[in-house]
From TrEMBL:
CDD domains: HTH_ARSR (cd00090). The lineage of its organism: Bacteria, Pseudomonadati, Pseudomonadota, Alphaproteobacteria, Rhodospirillales. GO terms for biological process: regulation of DNA-templated transcription. Pfam families: HTH_24. This is Transcriptional regulator. It comes from Pelagibius litoralis. Gene3D superfamilies: Winged helix-like DNA-binding domain superfamily/Winged helix DNA-binding domain (1.10.10.10).
Length: 220
């Protein structure tokens, strides 16, 4: 049996579904339909096609008490196979280079190299953040920088501060091979935003979370 080849419009809709699930996490077909501006029936068909390709999966979510009775809603989420649609930062090459640097320079030598990289990042980030004074403006600029680097970053207001959210990690394989990369990243954010704030990681992809998230709060 010949495999059905999706039309260009169907390809765009399926890619949009993948992007929304990556950006916002598990969702039902109704919410996706609202975001895409197409019917829930069309979204469900796309989801079933993506499920057949191993790109999405779903689980039942019981309806809250007091709402209309019916079947549990299906919450759709991406599988690891969908990672191929997003930048991987040349994972194999990067991991190989990290291993080579460890052998050539040792752990202390690698730490020194990461420190140099972190300083360069801070200088570049501060230059792009520029003279923005308010914390929201600084965070929006930082999120734009990180999105340009493939992290799909966004900013959300939360109680007492803000969340800097990264929905994708293009260097995840490298970070798994060298945990100092993640620690260095946290320090880069802190220095780029200045000493008037505290930056704390509250979600971590390497720890099993869907995303990396940083709580940024003013010290005063």
């Amino acid at each position: 049996m010949l495999k059905k080849v999706p039309k260009p419009g169907e390809k765009r809709s399926r890619r949009a579904i993948i992007d929304h699930l990556k950006q916002d996490g598990p969702q039902d077909a109704g919410r996706l339909a609202e975001r895409l501006g197409i019917s829930a029936m069309a979204v469900r068909q796309h989801l079933y096609d993506l499920e057949a390709e191993g790109l999405v999966t779903h689980e039942a979510e019981a309806r809250p008490p007091g709402t209309a009775r019916g079947r549990p809603a299906k919450l759709w989420a991406l599988t690891q196979a969908a990672d191929r649609f997003f930048p991987d930062g040349h994972a194999d090459l990067t991991v190989g280079l990290i291993d080579s640097m460890k052998q050539a320079f040792g752990e202390k030598g690698l730490e020194k190299l990461l420190a140099v990289r972190a300083r360069e990042q801070v200088e570049a980030y501060k230059a792009r953040i520029g003279k923005r004074r308010s914390l929201p403006a600084k965070l929006r600029a930082l999120a734009a920088i990180r999105s340009d680097e493939g992290y799909m970053a966004e900013v959300e207001k939360t109680t007492g501060g803000y969340l800097l959210i990264e929905n994708h990690c293009p260097v995840c394989s490298a970070a798994a091979a060298c945990t100092s990369l993640c620690r260095s990243e946290l320090e880069v954010f802190q220095q780029s935003l200045g000493g008037a704030v505290t930056v704390k990681r509250i979600d971590h992809i390497l720890a099993g979370a869907r995303r990396c998230a940083y709580l940024v709060t003013p010290k005063d």
